[in-house]
Design goal:
Blueprint (H helix, E strand, L loop, with lengths): L7 H12 L3 H14 L10 E5 L5 H5 L4 E5 L5 H4 L4 E4 L14 E7 L8 H14 E12 L20 H10 L2 E7 L15 H9 L1 H7 L2 E8 L1
Parallel strand pairs: 1-2, 1-4, 2-3, 4-5
Antiparallel strand pairs: 5-7, 6-7
């Protein structure tokens, strides 16, 4: 990740302590999220970059043509499947990806880790350069409107965002917002109950539940 904490060793320790206990559940969760929701946004032959890919739960599972995962955590590479190209770099610096070669840039719980809004702008500049015209940028993240205090429970959170502020950033940097949900997923899986796949599937199928339990936004935009 390009983020406020850039020491790879510290990143490795943070995410090992935070996620290693529930790795199996996170894989199950993302399998259901992809099958029930995100796969419909991604063509089978698409070139996809997972920005801040972490342990690869999304990018390993999604069906697409070419896969890239970007993250500064040195543990990421070991968790990515062999068909995923790992990019270990700051996202706000130039990407080693040809211009207009990606169909989708996906990111989950990443932008809040960036040190400032300039880093977001630079990251969006690279995303727009790398995406084909009409390519999609899909972003999930904690909505500060609905997690005002709990947001700061995580040491590596820096930027406070909502679906409106991120959508405005997209629109100001060469994208057109096509989907904007202020409430989509619950806030976090850390120290929370682990629900069976059928419950996750049911939740995604009933948007009314999003408005009750959702604390993360979902914003989808197209490159113009």
């Amino acid at each position: 990740m390009s983020q406020g904490i850039k020491d790879p060793g510290e990143l490795q320790n943070i995410y090992r302590r935070r996620f290693d206990r529930n790795t199996a559940y996170r894989k199950l969760l993302w399998r259901e999220l992809n099958a029930s929701f995100f796969q419909r946004l991604i063509a089978p032959d698409a070139a996809v970059l997972d920005l801040g890919c972490g342990y690869g739960e999304f990018i390993n599972d999604i069906r697409c043509g070419r896969k890239f995962g970007m993250d500064l955590n040195p543990s990421s590479r070991a968790h990515l499947d062999p068909d995923v190209t790992h990019l270990s770099q700051d996202s706000s610096m130039p990407w080693p990806i040809p211009e207009e070669s990606l169909d989708v840039v996906f990111t989950s719980n990443f932008f809040e880790h960036l040190p400032d809004k300039l880093a977001i702008r630079n990251t969006l500049t690279e995303a727009r350069r790398a995406l084909k015209p009409g390519g999609r940028l899909i972003a999930l993240g904690p909505n500060i409107k609905y997690v005002p205090g709990a947001y700061w429970d995580f040491w590596d959170h820096f930027l406070c965002l909502t679906e409106m502020s991120l959508g405005e950033a997209f629109e100001n940097n060469g994208f057109r917002v096509t989907v904007s949900h202020g409430r989509f997923l619950p806030y976090t899986t850390v120290n929370m109950p682990q629900f069976p796949a059928a419950i996750i599937r049911l939740y995604l199928a009933i948007p009314f539940l999003w408005r009750i339990f959702g604390r993360q936004f979902l914003v989808v935009a197209e490159r113009v």
